[in-house]
Amino acid sequence: MKALLYKDFLVLWKQMKFVLFMVAIFCVMPDTGFSLNTFFVAYAGMLVPVTLFAYDERAKWDALAAMMPFTTWDLVLSRYVFAWLATAYAVFWYLLGYILLRGGITGESMVVLGAILTLLLAIQAIYFPILFRLGAEKGRMLLFVVIIGLMVLVAGATAVLEKLAISPSPLLFLGCFLAAVTMCIGSVKVSVKQYEQRTW
Amino acid sequence: MNAIQCRGLTKAYKDFTLDNITFDLPAGTILGLVGENGAGKSTTLKLLMDAIPRDGGQITVLDTDNQSPDFIQTKEDIGVVLDEACFPEVITPRELGKVMGYAYQNWEQDRYEAYLDRFRLPPDKKFKEFSKGMKMKLAIAVALSHKAKLLLLDEATSGLDPMVRDEILDVFNDFTRNEENTVIFSSHIVSDLEKICDYIAFLHHGKLVLFEEKDRLLEEYAILKGTAQQLDELDPAAVAGKKVTPYGAQALVRRSLIPAGFVTEHTNLEDIILFLAQEGSTSL
Q1: Residue B52: its chain A contacts at CB < 8 A?
Q2: Which residues in chain B are closer than 8 Å to A197, comparing Cβ atoms?
Q3: Boundaries of domain holding A35
């Protein structure tokens, strides 16, 4: 897997240096009221890996990788790990921004970050198997369907909670986050199955 | 010892079926896999590497069932060159060497650098700036730098000029000087195959029409020219394929079954393949 991560890192650094710079800047900068910080955390965690999928597809790397001494698990898991590393990169700048420019890390900032990470993990868990099955070209359009579907689900759940007069507790947030982590672990297994069915 | 044993290999797509492919390839030989576009050459190579799911059959590569968990280890001993080099376009040969060093346990950096020198490949130039010939040479350098015992080459010389093709064929010839090393070389440039191959496999519409030693093929078969009527008088078993035009007729015939008195001409691999590719020809 080291080879795959190193290759992805090289491609990311050479193709998307500017994007990495923008993610760092927008995650650090003071909040302008448009939630740009959280948007760029999500951007790094979702669109960076999707773009890497697309670059690999264009180079037909997957066809070669399938013939190299990588297990399907290596090929699939490396994508998830890279997505998590990209997310961690953005979170680092996000937290640094709070420490340096936004008066320190607050409980509220952590709740917002936790919510965005939960949503991000859920999107990765649902969307990555689609990408592994269809590839970036065909799968790209479905990203918006997944995001909108999850947004509707979150809005619906929030409305139900309000109707039942249940205020979101830290325990509920933690439960959602753990559920998203579990989904992601299950998603790796589903992606492996999808990848094995793909033809190059 | 066989480098590859393939039994009843089958793969069905919506509009194409690779049908019941069976052959044994002895170690230390070069197999030329020939066939028209869409005949199933690339599919066969992918199936040999278990890179796509199959519908039937069994494959053993370098003494390992290619669907066993041990096959990942066997892949260390297999060098692959696809019709496009398939490397990320922003990566340089130097960086690619590092990636491959992490991927292959037996990676030989010195050998890789020697191939870069031999092929005159600039180590710090981006892959996307390479010509088609340079890209293929880089892919070959990678395939030969991890102590491979088996090379799978899918159209590795297509689209290259004759000089580069000749240079690359020399490299493959060098590779098989080690008697353990085996090459499967898919191409529709039959002259390339005739130069270096020991065995020829001809795939036609997903079926293995022919798997034979090249020298035996060239010894056994000949071209017979005459009238359509003359060809009709021959033993049907002697005629492997024929072409009849308003100006005369030609047939690919088995020398041993032709009566004395008929004058035959020496044939080449391309003629044999072309005759066999015609509808209604007799499989050998």
Answers
A1: 66, 198-200
A2: 53
A3: 2-197
